Amino acid sequence: MKPNTKVPKTPFFAAFSVGAVLFSAHAGGGFATGNQANTYYVGLGWTGIISAIVAMLLLTLTMREAMIMYNSRGLKSYKQLFETLYHPFDKIEWAFEVFFYIMVLMAVAAAISGAASALNNYFTINYYVGVVMVGIVVLMLTIFGAGIVRAASTYMGMAILVTAISIYIIGIFKSDSSIFSVLAADFETTGFMNMPKAILNAFTYAGFQCVTLPTMIACGTTMKNKAGCAKAMWISFVMNAVALVLSVFMLMSWQSVYTAVEGGSTIPTLTVCKIIGIPAMVAVYGTCLLLCLISTGVTTIFGFVARFEKLPMFSGIQSAPVRSAIVSAFIIVLSMTISMAGLTNIIKYGYGYCGYLGIAVVVVPFLTVGAYKNRKYCKEHAFANVNSEDAETAPEARSAVRSSAVTAD
Description:
Layout: H1 12-32, H2 35-40, H3 46-73, H4 78-86, H5 93-123, H6 127-142, H7 146-174, H8 179-190, H9 195-209, H10 213-219, H11 226-258, H12 268-276, H13 279-308, H14 320-338, H15 343-380, H16 395-408
C-alpha cells in the first residue's frame, strides 16, 4: 500500500523553472533560427500547424513520464532510468546511449556554429573568435551543476519567449500575405494529403528533441510528485507550442519571399527580419537568437557531462567543476568539427535519422510501458524525494526505493 505521506504542492515558479529548461533547449534550433520549423512544418501547409502542436505534446508527455519514473524511484542517472524503463531487458538501454551521443554532437555543433554566426552578423566579430567566445560561455554554464542550468534557462527562457513572440507577431502582420488566406489556399489545394507526413514529422521532431532528456531529469529533481512533474511539463508545452506555432505562421506568410533569396532558408527568420526593414527588430532578433543557441548548447551538453564525469578515468580528479570542464571541452571541440557540414544538413539528415531512432527508443516506450509502470508504481509507493529538500540526500532510502522499483516493474 502506498505510504501515507503528505504530498507537497509545487510552487508555480519552481515548475516554471523546470519547464523553461526544456523550452530553452528547444528554442535555438526549434524556432529561433526558423530552420527546423521550415524543414519539418512550413512545407506541409495547414497540417504543419497540427504537426507542430502534436510534436510538442508528444515531447512534453514523454518528459513528464521520464521525470516521474526518475523522481519516484530516486534514480541517480539516465542509465538507471532506461534500465528501469526497459526492465527486464535492461541492455536495451544502450540504444538510447547511441542516440544520445550522436544527437549531442550534432545539437551542440549546430548551436555553437549558429551562435558564432550571429556574433559575426550583428557585432562583426570574427567567426572563429565567436566560436571561442561562445564555447567559453557554454563551458562556464555547464560545469557548475543543475542549479546554474535551471537558473540560466529560466531567465533566458523568459527573455526568449517575450522577444520571439514579439518578432513573430510583427512578422505575421507585416506580411503581404494573410496567414488565413495562405492556410485557406493550401487547404483547397492539398486537403488532407499531407496529414500522414505531418504525423510522421511530429513523432520525428519529438524524437530528436528527446536528446534533452538527461538534462531534464537532472534539473527536474525539484519536482516532488506526479502533479509537480505534470505542472512543469504543461507549462513547457504552452511555451513551446505557442512559440513554435507562431514561428510557423510567420514563415508560412513569408515563404515565397525568403525562399527566393539565396541562402534565405538557412536562417529564414533572419532573412524575414532583414526584409521587413526594422533595425531594432533585427537587433532584438540577434540577441534572441544568440541566447537561444547558447541555451541549447548548455542544456544539451549538461546531460552529457553528468553521464561521463563519473567514469573511473576521472576518479583521480577531486574537483567536480574540473571534471565537468574536461568533458564539456571535449564535446565542444568535437562538435565544432562536425559543424562544418552546415546547419541545414545537420538538421535535415542528422536530426531526421536520429528522430526515427528517438521514436523507437524514447517516445513510444515512455508513453506506453513507462506510463504503465509509473501508474502501477505510484499507486504503491511515495516519491523517493518527497520528504527531502535535496534529491541527493538519504542515499540509503533512495537505494531501497530503487530495489523495490525493479521488483515492482
